[in-house]
Amino acid sequence: MANGRGERRDKRDKGRDPGGFVALPWAVLDCPAYAQLGHPARCLLFELARQFVRNNNGRLLASAAHLKARGWTSSDVIGRAKRELLEAGFIFETVKGHRPNRASWYAVTWRELNCLEGFDPGAAAGFERGAYLKARPKNAGLSPSGGVERHPIAPSGGVGAPPPTPSGGAMRATFGTAPTPSDGHHLEKPSVVPG
After folding, report:
1. Residue 142 lies in a domain
2. In terms of residue numbers, what domain contains 119?
3. Pairwise CA distance, residues 135 & 9, whole Å
4. pLDDT in tens, 25-49
5. Bridge partners for 121 per DSSP
6. How many domains would you assign to the chain?
C-alpha cells in the first residue's frame, strides 16, 4: 500500500549504530552551571545518564564498585565529581548509602523522579526537577552587588612614601676645584682635601 497502512514500519534510526543512546537535553549542556563543571564531574554525569532507562530515575549508581568496570579507578575523583554534581543541582541523592554494602542512589534532575521503593524518607518531596537551572555558579558571590567598576591604578591618596630624589633636585659635587688639573697630569699634583 502506498500510504503504509497495514505494513509494519521499521522505526529504527538507520543513520546511527544500533543500541540505546543517552538523551541529554541541550538545556543541560548549555546552562551556566554545566560550563562551571570540571571534567570528572561532566564525565560522571554522562555515566549516570547512561544508566537511565525509562523508569529508574532515582536508582542510578555512582559507587566506585559500579564505576570500576567503566574505567574509573579513583574513589577520590568519583567523590569530588559527585559532590560537584550535587552542589550544581544536576543530580539528587534519593538513598544515602552506608557501609558495608549499601550504595547511594541518585536521580538526574532534568527528568521526573520515578517514585521507587526504597527511597529515604522525604527524598521524593525534596527532589526538584530542573535544579541545575537555579544553581548559583561557583564564583557568583565574588562580584560586587553594585556592578563591576574600573578602579584607578594609582594609589588612592592614602599613606604615601617620600619621593626617591631629594626635594631640591639632583645633588651637585661640593669640590672647590675641578677633579683633574687643567695643566698637567692629575697624578703629579697632590690631592685637594675639601675643607
Report:
1. no
2. 26-135
3. 44
4. 999 999 999 999 999 999 999 999 9
5. none
6. 1
